[in-house]
Amino acid sequence: MKADVQINNRGDRRAVDSAPIDRGVAIVTGGRRGIGQAICVELASAGFDIAVVDLRDDDTARETVRLVEEQGQRASLFRLDISKTSDYAAFLDGVEAGLGQVNCLVNNAGIQVSERGDLLDVSEESFDRLIDVNLRGTFFLTQAVAKRMVARADAPEDRSIVFITSANAHLVSPEKGPYCISKAGLSMASQQYALRLAEHGIGVYEIRPGLIMTDMTADVVERYTPQIENGAICAVRRWGQPHDIARGITTLVTGGMPFSTGDVYNIGGGMQIPRL
Length: 276
Description:
This protein is of the alpha/beta class. It has a single domain (21-267), classed as Rossmann fold (3-Layer(aba) Sandwich), CATH 3.40.50.720. 38% of the residues lie in helices and 18% in strands. The chain is built from 7 helices and 9 strands. The protein has helices spanning 34-45, 59-70, 88-98, 124-151, 177-197, 221-229, 242-253, and strands spanning 3-7, 13-17, 25-29, 49-54, 75-79, 102-107, 159-164, 202-209, 263-267. A 7-stranded parallel β-sheet has the order 5-4-3-6-7-8-9, with helices on both faces. Helix 2 (59-70) links the parallel strand 4 (49-54) and strand 5 (75-79). Helix 1 (34-45) runs parallel beside helix 2, helix 1 (34-45) packs across helix 7 (242-253) and helix 4 (124-151) packs parallel to helix 5. Residues 1-7 and 9-18 have low confidence and may be disordered.
């Protein structure tokens, strides 16, 4: 059988068979639809079994499971509100019992402000809910997964944690202030975990999507499309698609950037480039 060359996180080159690689289990939070669904399918195509995590179990979620299974991989749907930290142990026990050891966590779950508006009108309730999910929940779920990764005696060479933040981790949008604050905080969390976990061979990456065509951006399509098409927002004059994010993540977690951890990857068509 033909042998390909693979590079692990230490930079070592080794020959591997060209047969599909068993990469273990990837947890994808918010995996039911949109970017999350695309990530589930793309990671499955690369050899991961998938724990699809979401609040809802509906036809869309079951379609995600079906699409993963079409790639020849196993998939299970787990209902979880990531803001409820007391549920983590049972959830992770269920993932390990049903699918196996977790080698990859993609922190994709997040919520947007319920209504864009004046920063001076933000309520404590809406602020707290958004921080609980986007920042606090993601931080502590990562902690729970990382502890199990570190405790494993049979740790594989390539393990990874991905934080999906946003271009709003550095681009200010006062009409959705709490969302920007949550993503900026999550960006720092990514840096913290990268330093803490590097000695264990666990790569940590931050992905900052730009304007991606999903349900979350449906309310601004008319507003932003003309600016995208004339190059005022992005160098690449089109809306991003969920698979643009999914392919970037798959490159990272399959060892495509073996000497990288704690790095920020902007996937927004050049949206982050300062301009006059």
